[in-house]
Design goal:
It is a single chain. Helices cover about 35% and strands about 40% of the residues. The chain has 1 helix and 5 strands, in the order αβββββ. A hairpin with a 2-residue loop joins strand 2 and strand 3. The longest helix has about 40 residues. The radius of gyration is 19 Å and the shape is flat.
């Protein structure tokens, strides 16, 4: 009976691991495809940081909004660096940032991270 539960736990852990790895790979593929689209037909605009905070010790979350050809769009990224003057998370809110987006679908964008003043 004990071996059955050990095997059951092992199967559950394996399933969870496959799901997590699968989601990570899918996200990476989507980000890569979006970057290719953006680079194939790019446009630029100025956006605004709406959220910026630290997750744990060295991960960050950045949300931004921007206007493109009559519409307002939002997006988010997880940069791996702390931006200057953003040590207090609220210091980056409402700061301007350049955004590169795909002309064919304005909701596909990436912020130009080194453009934060």
């Amino acid at each position: 009976m004990r071996d059955f539960f050990s095997f059951y736990k092992l199967i559950i852990i394996a399933i969870i691991l496959v799901i997590v790895v699968g989601m990570s790979v899918a996200k990476t593929i989507r980000l890569h495809k979006n970057e290719e689209l953006i680079n194939s037909n790019p446009a630029y605009t100025i956006g605004e940081i709406t959220k910026y905070y630290e997750i744990g010790i060295s991960n960050y979350h950045l949300e931004y909004k921007y206007d493109a050809e009559g519409g307002t769009y939002t997006n988010e990224v997880s940069p791996d660096v702390l931006f200057k003057n953003c040590e207090d998370d609220s210091n980056c809110i409402n700061r301007k940032i350049y955004v590169k987006y795909y002309k064919g679908d304005h909701s596909i964008s990436i912020p130009i991270l080194d453009s934060i003043p």
